[in-house]
Design brief:
Elements (H helix, E strand, L loop, with lengths): L5 E2 L9 H6 L9 E8 L2 E9 L10 H5 L2 E3 L2 E5 L5 E4 L1 H14 L7 H14 L11 E10 L12 E10 L7 E6 L16 H16 L4 E5 L7 E4 L3 E6 L2 E4 L10 H12 L4 E3 L4 H9 L3 E8 L3 E10 L2 E4 L8 H13 L10 E3 L1
Parallel strand pairs: 1-3, 9-10, 9-16, 13-14
Antiparallel strand pairs: 2-3, 2-8, 4-7, 5-6, 5-7, 6-18, 7-8, 10-11, 12-13, 12-15, 15-16, 16-17
The chain binds pyridoxal-5'-phosphate (PLP).
Amino acid sequence: MLATISLTRTPESRLTEDLRENSPFGTNYSDHMFVADYADGKWQDPRIVPFGPMELSPATTALHYGQSLFEGFKAHRTADGRVALFRPMANHARLNRTAARLAMPEIPEEIFREGVLELIRVDKDWVPTRDGGSLYVRPVYFGTDDSLMVRPATRYRFVIITSPGGPYFAQPIRLLAEETYVRAFPGGTGDAKTAGNYGGGLLAAKLAQAKGYHNVMWLDGKDRRFIEESGVMNIMFNINGTAITPALSGTILPGVTRDSVLTLLRDLNIKLEERPISIDEVLAAHSNTTLLEAFGIGTAAIIAPIAAIGHHNKDHEIPTNSPTGLAHKLKHALTAIQTGQAPDTHNWLLYV
Ligand SMILES: *Cc1c(COP(=O)(O)O)cnc(C)c1O
């Protein structure tokens, strides 16, 4: 059994209506955070404390050798005035798969679930009330040995912070098909949500932005031929009414939103293919006008329409924002479930 979570409240809440309703994504944090430590082979001292800096040794394992991972999901206010988390235990399962890949101990289900639930209960007033707003929940987990020995740490820290965000109006994004850098390769960490994957992707994104794109479209690490992801989102194409997304091959991050979208497509009886899809196939569909839509899929934006793909110095423009398109339909359907406006037939909501 998990020891009870101790609670130290902040002496003074920082909450204002403006912070709660109008914060841009990931810029402000709620009053408290959940912390638990792993040492001597067991989890200890689960606690909720005021959000703030943590003291760490300059030799902390995570900083030197990258034993660090994170997760992300959201809490929404529901139609009946409650607060619900969207599929947090799917994130817990993925967290433990990433932890295993980085030789880190598993986080027991009850520490994760009770930590998240208790933290959201304490900071419930931080959940935005306006349409499209949500409280983003960010667990982060890292090795904390004070040692330069190259080996898995013996001590770890698990922290959960939350961040209020207004509606995320995903402007259509322009992507550059990336042919120099790769995000992932067979046998690597591409299917794990490691901090290092993000560090390794920043330069390509920065160079693409200098050329006027929002991000890169990652291609496979071997031949730069098959499409893998859209920046830090999964990717889907609508070719002639069939939804096509790259199959999870070991180099693609198994998104919870991707999985939810695939489930909704099956519910809606829309033709769906999970398979390798090459840049050549997509550009051929573009030139014969069967490429109807392309979009990124992930927690932050849910669906991010792709307005253009840059390839070999040419931009291929793609229609976006069709009110009858899949992107619109999927975003609407998922948002309705998250906010309790549509029946939760797959048991995706965990009420606080
Ligand atoms: C987190 C992430 C996603 C999206 O996952 P969700 O669980 O849907 O938020 C997609 N691709 C990469 C590379 C990611 O890190």
